[in-house]
Write a structure and sequence with these properties.
Largest interface: A-B, 39 and 37 residues
Low-confidence stretches of chain A: none
Helix content of chain A: over 70%
Protein name (chain B): Amino acid ABC transporter permease
CATH superfamily of chain B: MetI-like
Distance between the termini of chain A: 66 Å
InterPro entries (chain B): AA_ABC_transptr_permease_3TM, ArtM/GltK/GlnP/TcyL/YhdX-like, MetI-like, MetI-like_sf
Number of strands of chain A: 0
Number of strands of chain B: 0
Order of helices and strands of chain B: HHHHHHHH
Order of helices and strands of chain A: HHHHHHHHH
Number of domains of chain A: 1
CATH architecture of chain B: Orthogonal Bundle
Distance between the termini of chain B: 66 Å
CATH topology of chain B: MetI-like fold
GO molecular function (chain B): transmembrane transporter activity
Strand content of chain A: under 5%
Shape of chain A: globular
CATH class of chain B: Mainly Alpha
GO biological process, one term (chain B): amino acid transport
CATH architecture of chain A: Orthogonal Bundle
Largest sheet of chain B: none
Organism (chain B): Bradyrhizobium zhanjiangense
Oligomer: heterodimer
CATH superfamily of chain A: MetI-like
């Protein structure tokens, strides 16, 4: 049997695919922002004095980390309307990505905060820095620097995970690819090319993260 | 009138769970075998080979699992082989596992102190004995927490087989949800089943990680 590969469909669909990339990047960036907010709030709650709040955060983290994203997004897709949030699929996808990424961010950020020794804060005060300065220069920046590799790695994972949001037909690259596939029946060509678009997106993100790291975190520590 | 979620539906989910477990086992076994080859090639010392394996690993780490599954699934269909859906997705997950496990074990092999290899060489052991008797037993210990972590990822990842239409736990959940119109209950039960499968492994992995960290402090 003869099947000839025909990549011209990919070429014709290029504008749509590139817009799909934009959709994926937008989805990922919105998801990362929400994940960071959940992460920071979660760390504060995780170490609070109220035992029930600590248990709630631990339960949330364990649940998210031990169930598939596909099941999470389906659950949210049906659960959000019940609490009165009638959202379009793309917004639902942002929430799902944020909730999922947030659980991982809690663990990562917590590790960073714990890496700051109490003596360092005391040393900051002894040098005459005021509270805001101590937080900014002694706690926040070194903590961010310590967790930067794992945090950005997690962000890239989140971007790749966003492809699963096509299951609720959110606007992103994979759902665009699925539409082109069902129009042209060129499944292999379309998905093969789109896989490399994702590779380009993750390289781009890695490059961006490296530039940020070089700009803000390249100073000697000892 | 739509059926309510009852015992027959639960039984259907349980059969889906069996497929999820079988798919995970097959992919993990295949991934371990191929992953060992990947790790050994990645550390073989030949620059060209190491470079090729690096790209291989980079492609799998830089692209979504869902797309890898699509490419393997539709790519295999093009070859004219009439493969069962299970075999096709199992191959997809195996290839992905080979890259991730290969990278985990590459790190573990390199984490074994260099002196061990040097001592083995001084004793006149050849490559296969050096690896089998000296380096790999230590590397396996080091890599165990990360390997278990990947196993959890793999269990969760098999849910993506649902998107190409293979009926495992997540797809079974979708079907039951469409029949009963009780999506929250059904996906809640499905999520709980995944949790029961994954959580003990996660717990075991992090406990072992803590123990290993303690041991390396001494």
């Amino acid at each position: 049997m003869g099947y000839t590969l025909d990549f011209s469909v990919v070429w014709h669909a290029m504008p749509a695919l590139l817009w799909g990339c934009v959709g994926t990047l937008g989805l990922a960036l919105a998801g990362m922002t929400l994940a960071m907010m959940i992460g920071v709030a979660g760390v504060a709650a995780r170490d609070s004095k109220a035992a029930w709040l600590r248990a709630l955060v631990i339960g949330f983290v364990e649940t998210v980390r031990n169930t598939p994203f596909l099941v999470q997004i389906f659950f949210l897709f049906f659960a959000l309307p019940l609490v009165g949030l009638k959202l379009n699929p793309t917004v639902t996808a942002v929430i799902a990505l944020g909730v999922n990424g947030g659980a991982y961010a809690i663990e990562i950020i917590r590790g960073g905060v714990q890496s700051i020794h109490k003596g360092q804060v005391e040393a900051g005060y002894a040098l005459g820095l005021h509270k805001g300065q101590v937080f900014r220069f002694v706690v926040l920046k070194p903590a961010l620097r310590a967790i930067y590799p794992s945090l950005t790695g997690q962000f890239i994972m989140l971007t790749l995970t966003s492809s699963i949001c096509s299951a609720v037909s959110a606007y992103e690259l994979t759902s665009v690819a699925q539409r082109i596939e069902s129009d042209t029946f060129r499944s292999f060509e379309v998905y093969f090319f789109v896989t490399f678009l994702y590779l380009a997106i993750s390289w781009l993100l890695m490059l961006g993260f490296a530039v940020i790291s070089h700009r803000f975190f390249s100073y000697p520590t000892r | 009138m739509a059926p309510h979620f009852g015992l027959p539906e639960f039984g259907f989910l349980m059969r889906g769970l069996q497929w999820t477990m079988l798919l995970t086992l097959v992919a993990f076994a295949g991934g371990c075998t191929a992953g060992l080859a990947v790790a050994l090639l990645r550390t073989c010392g030949h620059k060209g080979v190491e470079w090729v394996i690096r790209i291989y690993i980079g492609i799998f780490q830089g692209t979504p699992l869902l797309l890898q599954l699509f490419v393997v699934y539709y790519g295999l269909a093009l070859t004219g082989l009439k493969l069962d859906a299970f075999v096709a997705v199992a191959i997809g997950f195996t290839v992905n596992a080979s890259a991730f496990l290969g990278e985990i074990w590459r790190g573990a092999i390199q984490a074994v102190p260099r002196g061990q290899t040097e001592a083995a060489m001084a004793l006149g052991l050849h490559y296969s004995s050096r690896m089998r008797d000296i380096v790999l037993p230590q590397a396996i210990r080091i890599s165990l927490p990360a390997t278990i972590g990947y196993l959890v990822q793999l269990i969760k990842g098999t849910s993506l087989a649902a998107i190409v239409g293979f009926i495992e736990l997540a797809r079974a959940g979708q079907i039951v949800s469409n029949q009963t119109f009780q999506p929250l209950l059904v996906f809640g039960v499905v999520g709980a089943m995944y949790f029961i499968l994954c959580w003990p492994l996660s717990w075991w992995g992090s406990r072992m990680e803590a123990r290993l960290a303690l041991a390396s402090q001494r």
